Amino acid sequence: MSCGTGTEDPVDVPPPVPAAPVVALEPAADPAAVARGQALIDRFECVRCHDIPGREPASLEKHCVRCHQDILRGAFPAPPETLREWQGHITHLTDVPALRGLERLRRGWLAAWLRAPHDLRPGLNSTMPRLSLGTDEAADLAAALIPEPELAAPAPGDPARGRELLGDKSCTLCHRFTGVANIAPAPKLPVPLDEAQLQRGLAQAPDLRFTRERMRPAALVAWLLDPPRHKPGTPMPTIPLTDADARAIAAYISDATLEPLPTPKPVARLPILERQVRWPEVEAKVFKKTCWHCHSDPDYARGDGGPGNSGGFGFAPRRLDLASYPGIASGSVGDDGKRRSVFAPLPDGTPRIIAHMLARHLEVEGGAPEQRGMPLGLTPVPLADIQLVDTWIAQGRPQ
Amino acid sequence: MSRLALVLSLAVTGAVVGMPSVADACGNSVRRVVDRTQEYVQKAELLLAKGQYKKAISTVRDAFGDRAIASHQGGSGLVLHGRAQRILALAVARSGGDIPIGMDLGGAAQSRKDAAIAWAGLALRLQGGVAPTPAQTAELAEALSRQASGRAEAYGLLKELGDGDLIPNAQGWALLAELSKQRGDVEGSKKAAERCRQIGAPGVQCDVAEQA
Lengths: 399, 212
Hints:
Chain B: Keywords: Signal. The complex is a heterodimer of chains A (about 400) and B (about 210). With about 400 residues, chain A is mostly helical. Chain A has three domains: about 30-110 and about 130-145, no CATH class; about 160-255, Cytochrome Bc1 Complex, Chain D, domain 2; about 280-395, no CATH class. Helix content of chain A is about 35%, strand content about 0%. In chain A, strands 1-2 form a two-stranded antiparallel sheet. Chain A is globular. Chain B is about 60% helix and about 0% strand. Chain B is built from ten helices and no strands. Chain B has helices at about 1-15, 30-35, 35-50, 55-65, 80-95, 110-130, 135-145, 150-165, 170-180, 185-200. In chain B, helix 1 runs parallel beside helix 6 (about 110-130). The longest helix of chain B has 19 residues, at about 110-130. The radius of gyration of chain B is 17 Å and the shape is globular. The two termini of chain B are about 30 Å apart.
């Protein structure tokens, strides 16, 4: 995407389009593609994280976001002391955008982004996971989510005035706009918000840098005037703006010159440690912290060992159990259906499981590495903790 | 032998009362909250891991009685029953069949030991099904290696796992070292013993005794 992907990035991204009326508008989606896309929404289990209009949400045992929210609200049936313990641990998948009013987005952008999602909302620590999607499947999903044609954009406004308004109306209290000179928000929001509304707004506000690629120009102006009309329940408040204000802000968001994103930091393995590392240490710091929530033993989890074991989100079962020493030593099922060790070195000498954890850092830096980043769509494991796992493997995985 | 036949037929027909199911969330997190049988099984698993076979067996028996020996008869609690049965089978294999587990299986008499070990191998084989995990395969090999007639198969199973670096624990490597040595594969035996030592599991004897 626009964030400095490496040359190996296989995804074609349309270049950013200026908000000028000469651009061809996206027509209504092909009904056959819409139908195929609807079936893919089921196959990839999008409702395990997102609300989608007209679709049943996933059941509580399958819903990665609702269950966490229930626990954080204290509404999950468990003893209070257990709830408190869990509440202290859960930081991921506590909020995701509902997939509503998506006709504000460009279908072409969505198809490309679904194949190589990058972070849009700096306030959320989970990102859209990189699923196993082909180009056609991504296009069909985008058609199903955005069947509507694009509307013609109104006349552009004054970008300099737009920049002023972003500060004056406190927009930048919630929004980052990376790539332009810092815009200080006015200290007081023009509309009253309670603490919960503000927190949700801060968590879900997208970085405005990507808006010019993401949003249809007409929809951008319309959105600014009345967000809930376009997406009921959105955490973006309605801030009173005139039509000219909205067009001015849209012009600045779409046309301001952007500094290039910082060059991706290289992601390097740290050297093997001298001291001994045993299983309890890597278990506590890495595997039982994050990984086992998707990679557990189905026998301990009502038959579903999570997407990384029993399959899910469109992935075939890898049968990788990271919840115990014998589990991790039992490896995973490769594409040929055979068990393989997750410690076996890849051609460049990196043990497979290390490569997947480093790949997550690369994804966050904007790359689309060959190995899928782990933990899938979540905060990367700190390099110092990957080093522990690397050391443990080099030492013969002492128990 | 007739005793064994009785047990095997029970494995097919024995009725087992349904166990309350294990509530769970997101992998293993919620499991500890829910059900008492669950607690017994978990305790027994820890005892097994510590090598306290007698206590592990009595803990399983406290919760299940003879039901853990027969096969599960539909309904809920399938997984918990499977875990309980696995504990008994491994405790039998690792203790050499000395400890009675019920239904006249296990004890001082050689015939009881043999019957218990034969049962353990059968139970573990059934649990692994058509696509056993490496952990299940290695545990089956442990039980098989306790019978003279099972050694060759045990060696074959472990050798294949070992070649892919998929032996899930130190016991498995120690056993491969022993079985390799018995077959005269000194190099293979050394390598397996070395992997066993690297894992450094407490209480596991990695050095193969100096006898044929």
